Amino acid sequence: MLRKNKENLPDTVKTGKKKKKVPLIIGGVVVAIIAVSFAASKMTPKALPQVPVSAVTKEDLTAKVDTSGTVESLRTKTYFSPVNAAIAQYPLKVGEVVKPGDSLVAFDVSTLEQDNQKAQLNVSATVNGSKDSMAKAAQTQQKANEAAGKVPTLQANVDSYQEYVASLKTAIADRTRELSDWAKQTSTDVSVALTQAQADLTKLQQDLEAQKGEQQQINAQAEELQASIAEAKKNNQDTADLERQMKDLKAQAENMEPAIDDLTSQINDKSDEVTQLQIDQIESQSASDPTTDAQIVEWQNELESATTELSELQSELAEQKSLADSADGVQVTEAAKAQMQATNNIAELEAATLEELLEKGKQGLQAEFSGIVSKADASQGSAATQGMELITIASNEEVAVNVTVSKYDYDKLKEGQKASITIADHTYKGTVSRISKMATTNEKGAPVIWAEVKIDNPDDNIFLGVEAKVSIETGSAKGVVSVPANAVNTGKDSTFCYVVKDGVIARQEVETGISSSEYTEIKSGLKPGDSVITELPDGFAEGMKVDEAAAGSTSGAQTADVVKE
Q1: CA–CA distance, 96 with 526 (Å, rounded to integer)
Q2: Of 404, 387, 342, 394, whose CA–CA distance to 368 is shortest?
Q3: What torsion, rounded to 10 degrees, do the Cα atoms 509, 515, 519, 521 define?
Q4: Residue 518: how many CB atoms within 10 A of its CB?
Q5: pLDDT per residue over 333-368, tens digit each?
Q6: Under 8 Å between Cβ of 501 and 469
Q7: pTM of the entire structure?
Q8: Distance of alpha carbon 379 from its chain centroid, rounded?
Q9: DSSP class of residue 101?
Q10: What is the secondary structure of 340-371 as a DSSP string?
């Protein structure tokens, strides 16, 4: 059959020309393979790019503001010489720690009277010299418009302190009056009770004496009856009746003992009551003394501090007003201020008598509280004059860290917030105690807000003037809807997150709450279980179809360019 078919082929095939057919067949096969491959590629979908996502969860968040500042004392006291005398002992240097009652300076008072007389003669010369020195030491600091800009703020501060001082004086007066009225009423009540108690005591004592007298009479009768019994027995007379009488008298005397004991106990109790009432009467009389009332003492200290601050503010206000009226403003140097303070102290001491000065010289200067010597310019053997600044103590128990926060964080601060303070390798608890209401500029020219964070648990490891790291807790929330912090984006008009909805990138506006270092609270816009894109890769945009990948995963991740190919 095959042979027959071959014989019927055209001559061209028979003569060997069929080799020219091979290339045509191979080409057809290649075309077929390409067609099948193209069709297969059309039938297989391209792999979608992946974006890193994280599920919306509920977290416990604590928001903090981290900053740093300088450790400073909240209480300082400069001790001035109360006398004109040589310094006999000056044992302390800057940085040393003192305790209450420690000796700071001791004086040689042997020539005090003579030196004091000389100092009195030099008072007027010193005052005039300080004025001249202040005038010579003054230097131009700022233009008139700079001074004028400070005047409104200073005036507001002066007005505020004047109101504060007035309120403290009123409170002290009211408290003093209340103490006096209470003491009078208490004294009256105690006096009435004491009079009654003394009368009761007298009555009890009288009753006791009556009982004892009656008992003594019965005992006397018993002794007489005993003698009669003895006489009757001696005369061989019947004594039965007498002995019955004797027994009755003894019974009466014994029956009176409980009453006598009870009266004695009542007298002891009433005596104690009288004694206590007498003590109460003394205490009520001393209770009206305002110098012993803790509240008044506290207010007095506040008043003293506020009055000093007010005086300083008024002085600065007058100075700035003077500068504002001149072409070029001037500011008193620190040396001139110190001299003015010394002059003021001399004026105060002029009223003291020589005897008082001698006594103060003998007492010397003692530390009033625990602290650190922050200034010590004098030396042993040198001469001290009245009002001369000798030593300054800064408390190491009332300390705080002065910090600054940026314009992005100041609105988060509130007085009373708790903080963690790190000084070297020691950590302390702190509380935000004051927040400035006026911004200043830092060394980079950026506006910052000053705040004071009081150290709640200071110890002997506190060093003043060193840098401290402060972390302030500005808020906390339990179990709130949260997303990773880097998933939140801030636009010009809104805050939003990129999410994956139905496999497509979408923009979801949200309302945020507090933020920790890792998470941000979402108040509205998202719910637990939603998928947020933690970081939108370059080339990805809203509306693009994507697959979700766990945040941080790199397996199978593709760029947007892969999709476009």
Answers
A1: 59
A2: 394
A3: -50
A4: 11
A5: 667 667 777 776 776 666 566 778 878 888 889 999
A6: no
A7: 0.44
A8: 37
A9: T
A10: HHHHHHHHHHTTS-HHHHHHHHHH-EE-SSSE
